[in-house]
Amino acid sequence: MKIAVLDINGKDTGRKANLSDDVFAIEPNEHAVYLDVKQYLAHQRQGTHKAKERAEIAGSTRKIKKQKGTGTARAGSIKSPVFRGGGRIFGPRPRDYAQKLNKNLKRLARKSALTLKSKENAILVVEDFDFDTPKTKDFVQVLKAFGLENKKSLIVLGDSNKGVYLSSRNFKGSEVITNSELSTYKILNANSVVLLEGSLEGIESNLNK
């Protein structure tokens, strides 16, 4: 699949980039996409939630009233969950939310996500660029050239680029990553995916192993 290569000003350079059909034009597997996104979101959970249960509450173990003759329900401990300040019944405990998926399924999910973006014409290929001095203003100007200043966008670099990364850090509407950090969730979460020329080879290599 051929796609025009744009320059930093959003103009057509006259060159074409070849996007592999094995990555950008497959039959999307929606279940694989679902599983990969589910795993990504699960991994964002810290799992540090904790509530004290009955045995962990500090308090007297004295029986608070006699068993019979009070006209109310029997009660043995002030730490009972039925009283204010008592323990919580089946409260949350720290746990790991990590899920396992095999590598082939994750590659299929990412290729499916890229294919869906390709069908929506939401993929742009831009020649590699850099900033001499990191400035958010310069980065926003680039996004304006592509009409993305008011949309969520994902910029994919070939290699780590400190100038571009630092320039984008204060702009919440866009995220800059390298091709090795590409994930199904990030692809689908963006309105447009901007691939720098230098990232194409790495993306195709990573997803066609």
Side by side, the strands of the main sheet go: 2-1-3-6-4-5
Share of β-strand residues = 5-15%
Distance between the termini: 20 Å
> What's the CATH topology label of the largest domain?
Ribosomal Protein L4, Chain: A
CATH superfamily of the largest domain: Ribosomal protein L4/L1
Order of helices and strands: EEHHHEHEHEHEH
Question: What is the tally of helical segments?
Answer: 7
**Overall domain count:** 2
Overall pLDDT score: 93
Q: How would a crystallographer describe the biggest sheet?
A: 6 strands, mixed
Report the principal-axis shape: elongated
Number of strands: 6
> Which regions have little confidence, pLDDT < 50, spanning 5+ residues?
none
The CATH class assignment of the largest domain is: Alpha Beta
Please bin the fraction of helical residues.
Answer: 25-40%
In the CATH classification, which architecture of the largest domain applies? Answer: 3-Layer(aba) Sandwich
GO biological process, one term: translation
Subunit structure: Part of the 50S ribosomal subunit.
Function: Forms part of the polypeptide exit tunnel.
InterPro entries: Ribosomal_uL4, Ribosomal_uL4-like, Ribosomal_uL4_dom_sf
Give a verbal description of the structure:
- Part of the 50S ribosomal subunit.
- One of its GO terms (molecular function) is structural constituent of ribosome.
- This is Large ribosomal subunit protein uL4.
- By secondary structure, the chain is an alpha/beta fold.
- It has two domains: 2-45 and 101-207, Ribosomal Protein L4, Chain: A (3-Layer(aba) Sandwich), CATH 3.40.1370; 49-96, no CATH class.
- The chain is 33% helix and 15% strand.
- The chain is built from seven helices and six strands.
- The protein has helices spanning 21-24, 30-43, 103-119, 136-145, 162-168, 184-189, 197-207; strands at residues 2-6, 12-18, 123-126, 153-157, 174-178, 192-196.
- The protein has a six-stranded mixed β-sheet.
- Strand 1 (2-6) and strand 2 form a beta hairpin.
- Helix 4 (136-145) packs across helix 5 (162-168).
- It is elongated.
